[in-house]
Every structure is written in structure tokens, then in C-alpha cells.
Amino acid sequence: MKTAKRTSKSNVVIPSAWVKGWGKPVVAYRGAEILILESPARAASRTRLARMVRKLRRATGELGITPDQIAAEVEAVQRKRARRS
Known about the structure:
- By secondary structure, the chain is α+β, with helices and mostly antiparallel strands.
- Helix content is about 55%, strand content about 15%.
- The protein has one domain (about 1-85).
């Protein structure tokens, strides 16, 4: 497999073979120090996850559930799942 080619300190050339398996359209986002290449399906999935997290946070705030209670519940579920596998 080819490696990414660095042309200068701020430029990197990414081989097209790396992104061909993601489908035709690939969206590129640029952060402060990172470049994100993402398929539309992955972007939609990330958006749905963010929406679910916002709804859960709003609901827990309305119910008066503390972060400690949430952490305890998550830990209990993880322990239960760990015993199954």
C-alpha cells in the first residue's frame, strides 16, 4: 500500500485508492490541524448520533438525573454485557 506523500510542512497528497472504496461522493472538512474525509452515509450517521445525544441530555435535565447516576447506569450495563461475551 502506498503511503501519503508529504509535499511540504502544510501539504499532504493522499492517494486516490485510499478513498475509492468509500463510494463516489466524499466530503472533505478542514479543522485547525486535521483534514476529515467522510462519506455521506457516515456524515448522516454522525448527525443522527448528535441529535440523539442532544435529546438524551435534554431529557435527563428535565428529569433531574445527575451525571453520577448516568455514569453508574452505564457502568452497570457494561458489566452486564461483559459477562455475556
